[in-house]
Automatic annotation (TrEMBL):
Classification via Pfam families: Radical_SAM (PF04055), TRAM (PF01938), UPF0004 (PF00919)
Enzyme Commission code(s) on record: 2.8.4.3
Organism phylogeny: Eukaryota, Metazoa, Chordata, Craniata, Vertebrata
UniProt protein name: Mitochondrial tRNA methylthiotransferase CDK5RAP1
Organism for this UniProt entry: Cirrhinus molitorella (mud carp)
One GO CC term on file: cytosol
Keyword annotations from UniProtKB, A to Z: 4Fe-4S, Iron, Iron-sulfur, Metal-binding, S-adenosyl-L-methionine
NCBIfam families reported for this sequence: miaB-methiolase, MiaB/RimO family radical SAM methylthiotransferase
Length: 588
């Protein structure tokens, strides 16, 4: 069959725009049905229409326009739509981990630039955004209950009936998008962890009467060019996100499916944010990431081409190929710690596999890098660790603990544990209890296992531990953990701890609280203190101050004592009231 040039163009469009199986269907319908006079008539009609339609030249005639001109037209089209509700007040509620706190700051920065204002009072809000967590079933159930409450509030209030918009951001938005939008119809907008830039457009669509969502995951999004609006208590501490996503694919974990693959924020962007925080007087920065110590900056050519592969902790392995090149976590930690010697540096949450000696050596050398390491174990049984796809055995984990304590004397170690994972026996449980006793953690995060859809465990394993058994094992683990934490903390009685003051104690306005280098809460009476040992001038203690506190009592949760003197990370002072010389290192 002879085909016109316009008809050829149509075939070209079909080939480039449609899947192959649909291309075949279209071709068969219009070219291969010669036995049907009706179909032949349709072909003639289609030819006639195409002959009068646009030619190939019509498709390419505007290709000489500059990118800038096209971009200007695009902006002119979007701006009117996105600016119609710019006086609206946004109210955030943040659930889950510190990464969600950081995400809230990023989302607020984007909305603030779009003209929105923020309120901390729910009755004043025009937009309510919940930044959510999907790691455990209990966390999701909390969000469901809150959404039902907000929906009821929206219906009851005449003011809110037409104006209040409810949105879900973060991991739960990605995991339960269809149920939230279409089945329950509790929300107006959904934005996944990589779609916060799209919030102004989504809200504009919501005010136009549509339900809107963007939950696409990205291989590149790090929000490197978005400067978060930090909402830190009294301005003394802040979180700085350095990477997003996770490649570890532990069998129980939903994070790779809700936050995507690992990608690291450029080093220069992180340093800029930390310098800004230092200029604002922030005294403590916590570097954040789902696998924070696997950081690898490949943003520039010289970093990509740098030699060397990832050095793992001895006895550890990964499910993915060894990564090459780039600036690694030790490079980042080195540069960040040099910005402000009076700013404490912490990081969370790491994976035990990414603690090579070079990282441990740097922590030991720098006074302002806290001598506290979070070392998630998850289980004390090698068999369960294998089922979890953690990449190490109990023995390798204990070897790493010994190496850390040898290289960083006085280090504090915290951990995560999951109780009742698929197939866990009583013997496995006892091995977890014995690991807690052997290591001696000062802080722990302990949870009963809840299966998450999409994970390896969901597809390959059975959640076969009854709920009552999980609860009993969890209570036993909590009891052992508290016993060991109390021992660790009581060993500090009589010592002098350098404490960064956070504010008043929750239980008494006559007491102050803060945290020591090991991230343990320290409570002490409110009083004025001398700035210099040899001077009698007394100065009030304010949030963000460093003070020396003599520890007089302890339990599994906190330390108690009395403050001696104002201090800093790098001073060396004599405290006359104690008649001793104190070298104020970060781990004093």
């Amino acid at each position: 069959m002879k085909i016109s040039s316009s008809f050829s163009l149509c075939r070209f469009a079909l080939r480039t725009c449609l899947p192959r199986h649909l291309q075949g269907d279209i071709y068969d319908r219009y070219y291969c049905s010669k036995s049907s006079s009706t179909d032949q008539s349709r072909v003639i009609q289609l030819k006639s229409k195409l002959a009068c339609g646009p030619t190939f030249q019509d498709f390419i005639k505007s290709s000489d326009k500059s990118y800038e001109a096209c971009n200007d037209e695009y902006e002119e089209y979007l701006i009117p739509e996105c600016t119609t509700e710019r006086s609206q007040k946004v109210y955030f509620e943040t659930y889950g981990c510190q990464m969600n706190v950081s995400d809230t700051e990023i989302a607020w920065s984007i909305l603030q630039k779009a003209g929105y204002s923020r309120t901390h009072e729910l009755p004043e809000a025009d937009v309510v955004l919940l930044v959510t967590c999907s790691v455990r079933e209990k966390a999701e159930q909390t969000i469901w209950n809150r959404l039902k409450h907000l929906t009821a509030l929206k219906k009851r209030s005449q003011k809110h009936k037409t104006s209040l918009k409810i949105g879900v951001l973060g991991c739960m938005a990605e995991r339960l998008k269809s149920k939230l939008l279409e089945q329950e119809k509790l929300v107006d907008i959904l934005a996944g962890p990589d779609a916060y830039r799209d919030l102004p457009r989504l809200l504009s669509l919501a005010y136009g009467g549509q339900r809107a969502s963007n939950v696409l995951l990205s291989l590149e999004e790090t929000y490197a060019d978005v400067m978060p609006v930090h909402q830190t208590p009294e301005g003394h501490s802040a979180f700085v996100s350095i990477m997003r996503g996770c490649d570890n694919m532990c069998s129980y974990c939903i994070v790779p499916f809700t936050r995507g693959r690992e990608r690291s924020r450029p080093l220069s962007s992180i340093l800029e944010e930390v310098r800004m925080l230092s200029d604002q007087g922030v005294k403590e920065v916590t570097l954040l990431g789902q696998n924070v110590n696997s950081y690898r900056d490949l943003s520039e050519q010289q970093f990509i081409c740098s030699e060397g592969s990832t050095q793992l902790s001895r006895g550890f392995k990964t499910v993915y190929r060894t990564k090459q090149g780039g600036l690694r976590f030790s490079d980042l930690l080195d540069r960040v710690s040099l910005i402000d010697p009076e700013m404490r540096i912490r990081f969370t949450s790491p994976h035990p596999k990414d603690f090579p000696d070079e990282v441990l050596q740097l922590i030991q050398e720098r006074r302002n890098i806290c001598k506290q390491i979070h070392l998630p174990a998850q289980s004390g049984s090698s068999r369960v660790l294998h089922a979890m796809r953690r990449g190490y055995t109990r023995e390798a984990y204990l070897d790493l603990v010994r190496n850390i304590r040898e290289m960083i004397p006085g280090v504090s170690i915290s951990s995560d544990f999951i109780i009742g994972f698929c197939g866990e026996t009583e013997e496995d449980h006892q091995q977890t209890l014995s690991l807690v006793r052997e290591v001696g953690y000062n802080v722990g995060f302990l949870f009963a296992y809840s299966m998450r859809k999409k994970t390896h465990a969901f597809h390959r394993l059975q959640d076969d531990i009854p709920a009552p058994v999980k609860q009993r094992r969890l209570e036993e683990l909590i009891s052992v953990f508290r016993e060991e934490a109390a021992k660790v903390n009581m060993a500090l009685i009589g010592s002098t701890q350098l404490v960064l003051v956070e504010g008043e104690s929750k239980r008494s306005s006559e007491e102050l609280c803060g945290r020591n280098d090991g991230n343990v809460k320290v409570i002490f009476p409110k009083t004025d203190l001398p700035v210099q040992p040899e001077k009698t001038q007394m100065v009030a203690i304010t949030p963000g101050d460093y003070v020396l506190v003599k520890i007089t009592s302890a339990n599994s949760q906190c330390l108690r004592g009395h403050a001696l003197i104002h201090s800093s990370l790098n001073d060396r002072k004599t405290c006359p009231s104690e008649h001793l010389l104190i070298e104020q290192t970060i781990s004093c």
